[in-house]
Design goal:
With 263 residues, the protein is mostly helical. 84% of the residues lie in helices and 0% in strands. The protein is built from eight helices and no strands.
Amino acid sequence: MNKLSKSILKIGLMMCGCFMLAQTAGAAVKQQVVALEAAGNIKDVSQEITKAYFYKELEIRVVQAKRDISEGLDRLDSAIVVLNKAASGDDEVKGVLTFIEFSRDEMKTTITQPYSEENGAMMLDFSESLLEGATLIGQKQIVKNDTEQTGLISVKQMEFLLERINKYYIAHKAGFKDYNNVVQLKNAIEKFEANLKNVNAFSYPAALQPTIEKINKFWPIAKGFYLGIEKGSLPIIVMSSTNNLERALHALQDYHLKKMTVN
């Protein structure tokens, strides 16, 4: 083999190696995005399931509440499977996932039992336990200085906060009138607005501008409904407001996910 042939072969091997490294890095990024989304989904459903539980027990929008519980539990199961696959080598995450599975099983059992104040309190506790575990796992997936990921995190956080706000609203109506629940709702509203500022500062394409305008226009209206927690007179409107805002946020979430997983 002459020098030219050897040089060509060497260059070819280097290019092949670089291509394989790029593929490996791309696969790792995709796995990380999937794990981050799964952790975010657990945060969402931790609030959604308990919210729907109280709607069902108060006999408000029962059909939708039952559907939300069923779909929420399915999303929880799927997210746990994803995170178990991604948790190899991380004993802390494995331990947290074991606790999340335990909380899920206890939640499923409680949902099937007759309603009582004790069971309602347990559902609130389960929602907070799932949230804490999912938050820790999600933090381990964050890459600093990643603009797309920062955008996705803000959008997912807003979705979670809407469910949290709605959860405390309906729990208060169900009799859990501890003022701390009012404080938690107001804190969630403040955090939503902080994340909305991040969304407004992000450079979204023109096609998504109507969606962002819709969120900004409707949010002050929904906020007014949410702040009526101590009256509790608008549970159906509150649920509809949450659903409307979440549908808009899903469009932004899809945009970030596609950008982060593109080859």
